[in-house]
Amino acid sequence: MGQLDGKVALITGGASGIGAATVRLFHAEGAKVMIADLQTDVADALAAELGDGVQARRCNVAKEEDVAGVVADTVAAFGRLDVLYNNAGFGGAMGPFKDTPVEEYDMTMDVLLKSVFLGIKHASPVMMDQRSGSIISTSSICGIAPGIGPHLYTVAKAGVVMMTKSAALELAEYDVRVNCICPGMIATPLAAGAPISRDADRATHRVDKLRGFNAGVQPIERSGEATDIANVALFLASDASEWMTGTAQVMDGGYTLGRPWRKLAPMVTEHRPIRLYNPDTM
Ligand SMILES: NC(=O)c1ccc[n+]([C@@H]2O[C@H](COP(=O)([O-])OP(=O)(O)OC[C@H]3O[C@@H](n4cnc5c(N)ncnc54)[C@H](O)[C@@H]3O)[C@@H](O)[C@H]2O)c1
Questions:
Q1: Which one from 124, 140, 238, 241 is the annotated catalytic residue?
Q2: At residue 113, what are phi and psi to the nearest 5 degrees?
Q3: pLDDT tens digits for 106-125?
Q4: Which CATH superfamily does the domain covering 8-281 fall into?
Q5: Domain residue spans in the chain?
């Protein structure tokens, strides 16, 4: 018995990284899966590898007609829609505010935030009619604290958290749940700056290097893996989380706690007797 037996899931950005790991896990747990991505060759190859019950469509998540189309295609192919995972993304505009062109602002917000709005807009009517569904989106730890990622990535991911909560409030009475995930440092082509459709070998090499770098940056001293986030998505997609809505699930190896304990200042990690403070003489 799979945890997603009988369920149908639509996963954006399912060709690579977190999305691809989630496609594999959902398929292994019994779901029928539609992959929606721009990297059509890679998405088609993954669908062909997994076989029956997995299909792929080209979709730009920033375009309303594409998102509406892939929702309709999913229902046409598999008969229903139980899970939407809004996961596609990219790094967006980099650098100071003063150097950021408005076109890059628009593109960043379109891909990272408008996409989530479009996903909820077009999937929710199907799920409301079914009176069940789970909408999941990939935010980031950047969405809950500044200074980890670029400005607009941070702003867009914070928007994903609040869009999740606002939508959850509206859809709860239809038993449609809306949650998001805030991953920490995950070894994927995006984080390594190497989209796989350009050169799969280069992407693998860069991701391996990043994995080594990521290992030392959070209290649990190994890099985050795409499968770590896929496991959270599985929980949110499954009936095990049926009373959970409007949440932002942090999965970051403790990154948001601070640096690994032994890398903190000695005054934090070593016992020193209190000497200079004496309430009796103050
Ligand atoms: N890797 C990390 O450290 C990390 C941390 C926090 C959050 N995230 C988020 O996780 C999500 C997945 O990223 P990943 O790290 O797996 O990266 P990835 O590059 O491995 O995968 C992203 C996928 O999204 C697709 N995509 C990009 N733009 C698209 C568009 N306009 N329409 C459709 N598909 C599009 C890409 O083709 C790719 O297959 C993103 O939203 C990202 O912001 C990643």
A1: 140
A2: -120, -50
A3: 999 999 999 999 999 999 99
A4: NAD(P)-binding Rossmann-like Domain (3.40.50.720)
A5: 8-281
